[in-house]
Design goal:
By secondary structure, the protein is an alpha+beta fold. It has one domain. The strands form two sheets. Strands 1, 2, 5, 6 and 8 form a five-stranded mixed beta sheet that branches. Strands 3-4-7 form a three-stranded antiparallel beta sheet. The longest helix is centred in the N-terminal third of the chain and has 13 residues.
Length: 114
């Protein structure tokens, strides 16, 4: 990766309103809510996996508030225009059964990984 790309990325992260102490709020390409899992459609440069994300669930809100944060940046340079899907267990997140929740992430195809 070129140093100019690293400097630009670092500058964007410092000034971005979506940076939290535990990660960066991910712009999702889509989401599938299945009976036992949540599948997130995310951008990838080739080095993204489920371990690249953490999911914060605020159960004090009604309905629950869910935010997906990227905790592991993807600096790879593969061309994957359609992104990838990563899956998370609903029970492990406390979102099993008939729980209603709001996803706080934006949906779009504005990722810098595309």
């Amino acid at each position: 990766m070129k140093i100019t790309k690293i400097a630009a990325l670092a500058g964007a992260l410092i000034t971005s309103p979506f940076v939290a102490a535990e990660g960066t709020k991910e712009v999702l390409m889509g989401v599938d809510i299945l009976p036992n899992s949540i599948e997130l459609h995310v951008a990838s440069g080739g080095c993204t996996s489920a371990n690249s994300f953490t999911i914060n669930v605020d159960k004090t809100a009604s309905p629950h508030s869910v935010t997906v944060l990227r905790v592991q940046p993807d600096f790879c340079e593969a061309h994957i225009p359609d992104g990838i899907k990563v899956s998370f267990d609903r029970a492990a997140l406390g979102l099993d059964g008939k729980v209603e929740f709001i996803l706080t992430n934006k949906i779009g195809n504005t990722s810098t990984l595309q």
